[in-house]
Sequence to fold (683 residues):
Amino acid sequence: ACGVPQGEQADGGTDADARLVGAVRAPGEWLSHGRTYAEQRHSPLDAINMDTVPDLGLVWSFDLDTKRGIEATPLMVDGTLYVTSAWSIVHALDARTGALKWTYDPAVPRAWGQKACCDAVNRGVAYHDGRVFVGTLDGRLVALDAATGAVAWDVNTIDRSKPYTITGAPRVVKGRVLIGNGGGEYGVRGYLSAYDAATGTLDWRFHTVPGNPADGFESDAMAMAAETWTGEWWRLGGGGTVWDSMAYDPDLDLLYIGVGNGSPWNQSVRSPEGGDNLFLSSIVALRPETGAYVWHYQTTPGETWDYTATQHIILADMEIGGRVRKVLMQAPKNGFFYVLDRETGALISAEPYVPVNWATHVDTDTGRPVEVPEARYYAGEPFVQVPSPFGGHNWHPMSYSPDSGLVYIPAMDIPYLYAHDPAYEARPGFWNTGTNNTLAALPDDAAVRAAMKTVVKGHLLAWDPAGQKPAWRVDHKGPWNGGVLSTGGNLVFQGTADSRFVAYRADTGDELWSFPTQTGVVAAPMTYALDGEQYVTVAVGWGGAFPLTTGAFTQAESLPNVSRVLTFKLGATGSLPPLDWTPLPLPEPPLEPADGEQVTAGLAAYHANCTFCHGISAVGGGLIPDLRHSGALHSAELWQDVVIDGALVERGMIAFSDVLSAEDSESIRAYVIAEAQRAWALQ
Ligand code: PQQ
Fold:
C-alpha cells in the first residue's frame, strides 16, 4: 500500500531525464541526492539485512583533504562514486575500490567562509547525462564531465557584492539544474534558479520573498507575497533562502522547495507591523519548466526564530484514514511534523515530534500554529524556547521506509534564549539577526555550565507519520547526529556525533552493529550494489553549524575532524589507521588582570561577531582555532593585525575593520584572555 510515486518518463523528456525518473527501479545505483525524486532515502537492497549485518566490515576508505564538516551524500552512477568535501571540492572514486579517478577543486577563496553561517560545507552533487553538477560556497554552479572532471561550464548564480553562499546539493529536473543559496543570517533575498543542464544558461528564477515594490514584482506570486509584509523589508534582504531541500513528483509534475527563515530573524525589525511574510518558512510547489507558483504551505507565519522549512522533504503514497493519500512530509526546525496533501498543499496533520513551547499546537482548520504570546520575544522579555535555532531537526536527512511505514528523524532537544536587540543596526554581510546573542553566552559558573550540557540532547526518532506518534527512539550522547538511510533489510543506518556508524533494526530500534569512525558523523549514508554485492557508504567528518558555534562545549566525544569516505560490505574486515591525536594542552594565558568593564564590552562584541566560528564564550569550535590558545592574546598589535587588518585573510579570518574599532578589538582580546584564564584555572 505504501509506495514511492511511480513516475514514468515525463512528456517530451530525454533519456537522461527518464533515467532520473526511473531511479525508483534502479536500486543498485544512487542517482540523485535522496536516491529518487521522492527523496525517501530508502533503498530496497536487502543483502545486508538484520541477519547478515553482524558480518558487515570496512572494504575501503578514502581520506578527504579538508578539515571542515563533511555533509555530502555520495552519488553512485555507473560504478563511480561522486562525493564532495568541504570547500565544495568534488571527488570521483571507483565504487568498488575507492581508487581516486579525479578531483575538482573550485578554488573557493577561504575568506568567503565568513559569509557561511554554518561551516564551509557542501551536501553533494547532482548527476544528469554524463555530467555532475556542484554548487560552490562562493555562489557558482559548475558542470563537470562525469568521466574526467573537466569543466563543461561554470556560471555565477549570485550578486557577488552580497553575502550569498551555496551549501546544498543541486537537483536536475527536466533538463534543468536547480540550485538555491544560503545567506539568511547575513541579510539576503532568497531565490531558486534553474539552469539549462546542457549549456548553463539561466532558464528561470523563483524569488521566495518580494523585493522593493517600487521596482515592480517578478511574478503574481511576489505581488501576493508582498501583501503579507510591512515596512521596508527589502532593505535588509528579507531572507527565505532555499539552502537545502527539494523534491519532485513526476506524475503531478510538481517541484517542491523548502524555504528558509527571515533575514534578520527578528520580525519587529524586518517587518515592523507584522504579517505572515510569505514565503518564509514555507514549502512551495512550482512547475519545473517555468518556475510558476502552484501552491504553498507556511509552517511558521511571521517567522522570528530562525525556524526554516528547508529541512528534508519526503514524498510518499500512504494510507491515512482508510484511503491512500499522496503526501509530502517534513520535520522542520519549528518542532512540528507535517503531513501535507502534495497535490494541493492542504494540511493533513501536524504534531510535535520534539518538545515545543512556542506554540500549543497547529490548528488543523486554519493550518496555523497557535503561538504562546511570550514567544514573540521582541514584544516583551527574553524567552527560553524549544526548539532552538538549531531546530528540532536540522538539514541531516531523515528517511522513510515503505516497509515499516516509519520516518527516521535525527532529532534534537536544544533550548535557546531569544532576546530582542534594542541597539540593532543593520549590517548586511555580517551576522545580522536583530537578536541579542550576548545573552546566549554561557554563565560564568563552571557548575552551571556543566549542568547546561546535560539538557542539550539528541536522539534517533522513529515516527509513525500516518498516526503522528513515536514508534521508538534511541537516545544519543548529544545532539547533531548524522543523517539516516533505511533499507529493505529492515535496517536503519546512522552515524553519530560520538563517532560511531550504527545499524539499527528498522521496526524496533535494536542496535545490531556499529563501527568506530574516529570522528563525529553528520552526513547521511547511502547504499548501492555492484557485481551482485551490496555496499554501504558514509562520508564522515565532524562539522556544521552546531560544532562551530557551541564547539567543544557540547561535543559528545571530543575527537577531531577526520574527513573520510568509509565503504562497507559483508565479509570485509578492513580497519582504519590508528587515530594519532591528543587534544592540545591549553598554553598559559597572559596573566594581566582583566579590566571588568573591558571584559564586559568584549563579551558583547565577541558574541555579536566571533561566536559563529570560534564558539560561544570562546569555547573553541574544534574546527577553527580555539582563540584561548592564540599566541596573539599576548600582543595587542598582533591581535589587531589579525582582527582589524586581516593578517590571516588567506586562511579565512577576514578583516573586521568595517564593523569593529581598535577599541572593540582590544575588548575582545580582554574577554578572550578572561575566558582563557578561567579555563586555565579549571584544568
Ligand atoms: N547549515 C547548517 C549546517 O550545514 O550545519 C545548519 C544551518 C545551515 C542552519 O541551521 C541554518 O539556519 C542555515 N541557514 C542558512 C540560511 O539561512 O541561508 C543557510 C545554511 C547553510 O547554507 O548551510 C544553514
User: Anything to note?
Assistant: The chain has two domains: 15-570, 596-682. The mean pLDDT is 94. The domain at 15-570 is CATH 2.140.10.10 (Methanol Dehydrogenase; Chain A). The first strand starts at residue 42 and ends at 43.
